């Protein structure tokens, strides 16, 4: 077990790997009562095709999410929710495009609950009957998200940005695709992606790292699993341009909404590491659209929007820049947006101020167990390593490299989705 | 972590010293009796105050200042608690030992500027900023309908009665229309003068320095007033629950049920009802979850919650409209059985553990530490240590007994009629 620390933040972190490859990270917090644990796999909605002994398998869209639901079912009818709630702890799980995570949080009996988390995630139990029963619940979940205009724009935008990447489809799949899922699909996916060598465990709380290490090293179910080498995620040959540039929807909204996205190929930035790409992109977003941006001042003053937010997302070797807004003057808002994206120039003083804000947020983060665990886990999923020197990384951002980044930034692949009120459908 | 209370001219300063956090949080509370027609005004005013100040007279200038103070967090929001409208100004700054020594004074200067030096010229608010904030609030009020779960609750409460619980927290479009830069400024002056003030601070700080800084920077001129009656009591029950069904263009139907709590004694109100709620629908492994969601697959989600200040228990569920009657029947059955031998000792023990865990968990979050204190002071709840002891005294008989004091009053269904001929 290796001991490290988050640089400049007075916080330790321990790391080791089990024989079968589970990457374990322990963050001991003094002074706190809570704990937060994530056990996750690099398996998300995008992984619909995969190889087992060089034989190719294809599963319906939504299998990863379906599998997540079914993991909570145990052969002895015992219910994990019930188990954790006995000691006042809670559990939940979520599936995204590139990972599935199971998390437990509470204040009592950390070791008992950690051990059980490993038990239940390493005990698959799928039957034809319990798979059939789940379909109704998942169908309801899919319908619920369809009512939400922002989810709907998000789903449509990915379809329009990408030609081939499976993240085009909804994480939960469609009512039709879910109907086709079988227990064999679930076992095939499980036996591949839930191998410990494809998984990460992050534990934050008031713990003794050595006793956690012992618990994991001696955990029967976990250690029985044999390591699979080289789990391969299928790569897709995705073009740089967008599939559709525009589409509109009519929904139950009163004010129109829009999502404007830009598709950026990260391979353009050869001299930048993945984290640097994300950080410099973040600087640009904060500068162009943040709370101190001229853009924000202008669009609010001219009432071009009643609210907007900007995000970035990583999908394989692509980065998307996504702007979501509510606006009844959408055309003017978009003109302003496109204008802002032309001739990006950032001053040194502005870069320095952004760095100050980010450093502050790193210090705040470490006060929050959940956020800290979450960030460590996200680093592992996104970069395959934990960046403990984030404060230093932020400090090292400089104007010369920023300008170089801006020069290579291609913002021409754009797409727009708009949602209009149902009442305008027949106008 | 103990609370120290200092009397100020205008109210109380509550200091909670702890080394647990790397930030210092300050909360300024202004409370007065809720008047329906004030809600919109108050929302608009507090949004306006944190959007700019006299010295930082545009949003951008204020944001630049905030970022210079190591991205200080500063915000305002209003909530109704029973019969009261409570305005909070929240500030959170990194402990100066991680930044620069002058940051505490500079941050409090900004809080002072926000509360006491609004962006005003010739006795009226700045028109540009006013219009932005007004427009934002307008859209907030309008979009309440888009969140079907929230909207179902709003409509249920409006059907439940006409006491303050039925007021819409965002405010009303009718009221918004008549507000302008002049009358809102007049309202500001009235608001500052008539509200009760409480200030809460949590973090690692020098006590003497903090007290003198608060006295200097947050010098309110209000007069201390008597405690007002915050809690809402019900005196009527319906023989048969009221049923209201409305349709909207959604896929999933939302169910919201309001139950009145009546004649609870102090122990029941403080403790038993929390455990009752946890077992019924509040906990992860509640009766509702076990029976309605897991066993009968009738709902995507179903939960219940308690609002002590309103004396209400509210049930929320997302369902398919075909299942409506069956879900209602299930809920009725479960609630009826709660007075029989239906809850096991183990379930009660689990609920106690869940209650205690939530309590401990909340103490690791700086804002929750403050909010716990606020709730305790407003609702006259017990100290944490006493709560830890008292909750263990609740028995199965207590649960049975309190279940007879929960009365289903209003059943509201927001029916999703997507893909249907009208």
What does this structure look like?
The complex is a heterodimer of chains A (427) and B (422). Chain A has 427 residues and is of the alpha+beta class. Chain A has two domains: 2-224, Metalloenzyme, LuxS/M16 peptidase-like (Cytochrome Bc1 Complex, Chain A, domain 1, 2-Layer Sandwich); 246-424, Metalloenzyme, LuxS/M16 peptidase-like (Cytochrome Bc1 Complex, Chain A, domain 1, 2-Layer Sandwich). Chain A contains 16 helices and 14 strands. In chain A, the strands form three sheets. Chain A has a seven-stranded mixed beta sheet, with helices on both faces. In chain A, helix 1 crosses helix 7 and helix 13 (348-365) packs antiparallel against helix 15. Chain B has two domains: 3-217, Metalloenzyme, LuxS/M16 peptidase-like (Cytochrome Bc1 Complex, Chain A, domain 1, 2-Layer Sandwich); 242-416, Metalloenzyme, LuxS/M16 peptidase-like (Cytochrome Bc1 Complex, Chain A, domain 1), CATH 3.30.830. Chain B has a six-stranded mixed beta sheet with strand order 1-2-8-3-5-4, with helices on both faces. In chain B, helix 1 (39-49) packs across helix 4 (127-142). The interface between A and B is large, with 59 and 60 residues.
């Amino acid at each position: 077990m290796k001991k490290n620390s988050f640089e400049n933040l007075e916080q330790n972190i321990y790391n080791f790997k089990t024989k079968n490859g589970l990457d374990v990270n322990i963050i001991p917090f003094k002074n706190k009562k809570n704990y937060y644990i994530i056990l996750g796999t690099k398996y998300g909605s995008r992984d619909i095709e995969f190889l087992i002994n060089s034989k190719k398998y294809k599963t319906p869209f939504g299998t990863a999410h379906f599998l997540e639901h079914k993991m909570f079912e145990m052969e002895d009818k015992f219910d994990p929710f019930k188990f954790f709630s006995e000691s006042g702890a809670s559990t939940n799980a979520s599936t995204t495009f590139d990972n599935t995570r199971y998390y437990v949080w509470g204040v009592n009996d950390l070791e008992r609950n950690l051990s059980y988390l490993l038990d239940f995630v390493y005990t698959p139990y799928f039957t034809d009957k319990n798979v059939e029963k789940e379909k109704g619940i998942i169908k309801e979940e899919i319908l619920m998200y369809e009512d939400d205009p922002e989810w709907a724009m998000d789903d449509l935008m990915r379809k329009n940005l990408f030609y081939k990447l499976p993240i085009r489809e909804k994480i939960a799949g469609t009512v039709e695709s879910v109907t086709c899922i079988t227990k064999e699909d679930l076992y095939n996916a499980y036996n591949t992606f839930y191998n410990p060598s494809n998984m990460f465990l992050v534990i934050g709380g008031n713990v003794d790292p050595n006793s956690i290490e012992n618990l994991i090293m001696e955990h029967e179910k976990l250690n029985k699993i044999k390591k699979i080498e080289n789990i391969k995620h299928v790569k897709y040959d995705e073009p740089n341009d967008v599939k559709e540039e525009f589409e509109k929807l009519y929904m139950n909204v009163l004010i129109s909404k829009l999502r404007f996205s830009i598709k950026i190929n990260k391979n353009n930035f050869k001299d930048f590491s993945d984290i640097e790409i994300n950080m410099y992109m973040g600087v640009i977003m904060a500068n162009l659209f943040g709370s101190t941006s001229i853009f924000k001042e202008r669009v609010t003053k001219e009432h071009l929007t009643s609210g907007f937010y900007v995000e970035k997302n990583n999908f394989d070797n692509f980065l998307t820049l996504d702007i979501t807004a509510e606006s009844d003057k959408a055309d003017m808002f978009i003109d302003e947006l496109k204008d802002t994206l032309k001739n990006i120039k950032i001053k040194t003083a502005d870069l320095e101020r952004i760095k100050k804000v980010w450093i502050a947020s790193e210090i705040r983060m470490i006060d929050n167990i959940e956020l800290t665990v979450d960030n460590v886990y996200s680093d592992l999923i996104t970069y395959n390593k934990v960046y403990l020197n984030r404060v230093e990384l932020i400090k090292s951002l400089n104007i010369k490299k920023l300008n170089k980044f801006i020069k290579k930034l291609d913002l021409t692949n754009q797409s727009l989705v708009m949602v209009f009120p149902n009442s305008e459908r027949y106008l | 972590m103990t609370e120290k209370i200092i009397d100020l001219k205008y109210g109380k300063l509550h200091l909670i010293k702890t080394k647990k956090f790397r930030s210092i949080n300050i909360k300024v509370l202004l409370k007065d009796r809720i008047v329906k027609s004030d809600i919109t005004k108050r929302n608009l005013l507090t949004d306006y105050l944190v959007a700019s100040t006299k010295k930082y007279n545009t949003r951008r200038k204020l944001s630049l200042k905030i970022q210079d103070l190591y991205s200080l967090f500063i915000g305002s929001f209003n909530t109704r608690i029973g019969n009261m409208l409570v305005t909070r100004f929240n500030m959170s700054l990194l402990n100066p030992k991680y930044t620069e020594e002058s940051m505490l004074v500079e941050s409090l200067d900004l809080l002072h500027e926000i509360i006491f030096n609004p962006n005003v010229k010739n006795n009226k608010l700045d028109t540009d900023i006013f219009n932005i904030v007004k427009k934002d609030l307008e859209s907030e009020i309008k979009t309440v309908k888009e969140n079907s779960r929230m909207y179902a609750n709003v409509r249920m409460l409006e059907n439940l009665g006409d006491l303050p619980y039925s007021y819409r927290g965002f405010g009303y479009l009718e009221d918004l229309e008549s507000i302008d830069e002049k009358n809102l400024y007049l309202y500001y002056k009235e608001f500052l003068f008539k509200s009760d003030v409480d200030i809460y601070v949590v973090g690692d700080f020098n006590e003497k320095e903090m007290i003198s800084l608060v006295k200097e920077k947050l010098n309110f001129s209000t007069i201390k007033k008597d405690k007002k009656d915050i809690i809402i009591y019900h005196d009527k029950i319906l023989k048969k629950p009221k049923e209201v069904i409305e349709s909207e263009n959604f896929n999933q139907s939302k169910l919201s049920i309001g139950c009145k709590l009546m004649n609870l004694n102090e122990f029941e109100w403080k403790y038993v009802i929390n455990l009752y709620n946890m077992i019924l629908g509040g906990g992860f492994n509640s009766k509702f979850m076990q029976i309605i969601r897991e066993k009968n697959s009738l709902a995507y989600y179903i939960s219940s919650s308690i609002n002590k200040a309103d004396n209400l228990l509210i049930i929320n569920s997302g369902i398919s409209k075909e299942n409506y009657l069956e879900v209602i029947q299930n809920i009725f059955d479960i609630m009826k059985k709660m007075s029989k031998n239906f809850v096991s000792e183990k379930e009660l023990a689990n609920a106690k553990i869940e209650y205690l865990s939530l309590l401990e968990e909340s103490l690791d979050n700086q804002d929750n530490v403050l909010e716990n204190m606020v709730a305790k002071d407003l609702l006259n709840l017990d100290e944490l240590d006493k709560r830890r002891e008292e909750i263990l005294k609740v028995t199965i008989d207590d649960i049975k007994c309190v279940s007879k004091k929960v009365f289903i009053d209003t059943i509201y269904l927001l029916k999703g009629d997507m893909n249907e001929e009208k």
